[in-house]
């Protein structure tokens, strides 16, 4: 009887764990990361890049770097017309469904997801020193049958027999051992990289029931990164008169995006950070450097409207579940973005209590 692995197949990042001594243990990938970017890149030479290496060349090879494939899983072509406009890679009709055209070949969403699952499977096998053939995979509570089936198909292509598909908020509640408590209502506030989900769950006696779920499928940490990137570009233009949005600046944009994400993460624990990108571009006068200070207060002001977009879904979700905030005994925070103090404060305003922080929010 081999070990069963648990996989969080996320829109932006994915994670794999295994049970050890009754506790889930997150397994690091080959690069040492405890989460793996859900990104697949196809190079000219026919190589397939998965994870961090794919993410690093996303802006310089946009047509052949596939991210956010989860948005296309199990969806018909006519359901994703808006999504298609938002990605730089080519999405084509394939029967009723969709495929991604990369380096002249069509790949279905389950095939792309399978490449991510394969990397996670290999990480688990390297760690355990044995073959892994079985898994449980999490999906958003609102996924329909087609989306769940597509997730199972991805597992199968990756060589995994998917024993269970588990709702993400249910998995988060389990991560906190909240199924062991007496009957209570809990909220799971999941601010991910690409999507925001809020769920109200009833737990007790080992049973977890999703009472209501809501969210915004285009609200996530990536929006905050982009806001910082836009600010950096505007500031640079003011200072140097050069526009980094123009063609030929892909490499600069890749560096800006990486630096923006790093700065955002740092400002969750410090009050000020410096973004320092030497040789970001050049003009006739020689190389140009970008050096900018960003304070936590400035960042919060910059992204407040983005964060506020999570408020409406939270209120609607409680309404649909037939509870008000006073009836919610626990709030579980999921997603790295919930480390941001401003978001933690917002959760406290919304639910009247601090979010649960015992488990690493990237790995819940």
Q: What does it look like?
A:
The protein is an alpha+beta fold and 364 residues long. It has 3 domains: 5-159, Nucleotidyltransferase, domain 5, CATH 3.30.420; 177-218 and 310-351, Nucleotidyltransferase, domain 5; 221-300, Actin, Chain A, domain 4 (Alpha-Beta Complex), CATH 3.90.640. Helix content is 34%, strand content 31%. The chain has helices spanning 52-56, 81-85, 109-128, 145-157, 168-175, 221-240, 250-266, 296-308, 311-321, 341-351; strands at residues 4-9, 13-20, 23-26, 36-37, 39-42, 48-50, 65-67, 90-94, 97-102, 105-107, 134-139, 161-167, 184-191, 196-204, 207-216, 272-283, 286-295, 328-334. Strands 1, 2, 3, 4, 11 and 12 form a 6-stranded mixed sheet that branches. It has a 4-stranded mixed sheet with strand order 15-14-13-18, sandwiched between helices. The radius of gyration is 21 Å and the shape is globular. 42% of the residues are buried. The mean pLDDT is 95.
């Amino acid at each position: 009887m081999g070990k069963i692995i648990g996989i969080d197949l996320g829109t932006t990042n994915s994670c794999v764990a295994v049970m050890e001594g009754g506790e889930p243990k997150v397994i690091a990938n080959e690069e040492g990361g405890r989460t793996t970017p859900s990104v697949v890149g196809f190079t000219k030479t026919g190589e397939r890049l998965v994870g961090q290496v794919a993410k690093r060349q996303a802006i310089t090879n946009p047509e052949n770097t596939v991210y956010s494939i989860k948005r296309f899983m199990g969806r018909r072509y006519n359901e994703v017309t808006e999504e298609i406009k938002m990605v730089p890679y080519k999405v084509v009709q394939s029967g009723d469904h969709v495929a991604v055209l990369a380096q002249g070949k069509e790949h279905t969403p389950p095939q792309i997801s399978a490449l991510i699952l394969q990397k996670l499977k290999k990480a688990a096998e390297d760690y355990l020193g044995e073959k892994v053939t079985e898994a449980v995979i999490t999906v958003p509570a609102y996924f329909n049958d087609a989306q769940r089936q597509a997730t199972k198909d991805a597992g199968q292509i990756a060589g995994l027999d998917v024993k269970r598909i588990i709702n993400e908020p249910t998995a988060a509640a389990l991560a906190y051992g909240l199924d062991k408590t007496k009957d209570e209502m809990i909220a799971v506030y999941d601010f991910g990289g690409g999507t925001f989900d809020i769920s109200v769950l009833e737990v007790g006696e080992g049973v977890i029931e999703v009472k209501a779920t809501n969210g915004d499928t285009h609200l996530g940490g990536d929006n905050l990164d982009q806001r910082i990137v836009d600010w950096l570009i505007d500031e640079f233009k003011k200072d140097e008169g050069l526009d980094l949005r123009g063609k030929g600046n892909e490499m600069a944009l890749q560096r800006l995006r990486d630096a923006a994400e790093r700065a955002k993460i740092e400002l969750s624990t410090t009050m000020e950070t410096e973004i320092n990108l030497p040789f970001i571009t050049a003009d006739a006068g020689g190389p140009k450097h970008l050096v900018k200070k960003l304070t936590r207060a400035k960042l919060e002001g910059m992204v407040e409207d983005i964060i506020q977009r999570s408020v409406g879904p939270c209120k609607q979700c409680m309404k649909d579940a037939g509870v008000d905030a006073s009836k919610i005994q626990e709030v579980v925070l999921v997603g790295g973005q919930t480390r941001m103090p401003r978001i933690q404060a917002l959760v406290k305003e919304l639910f009247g209590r601090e979010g649960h922080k015992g488990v690493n929010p990237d790995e819940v």
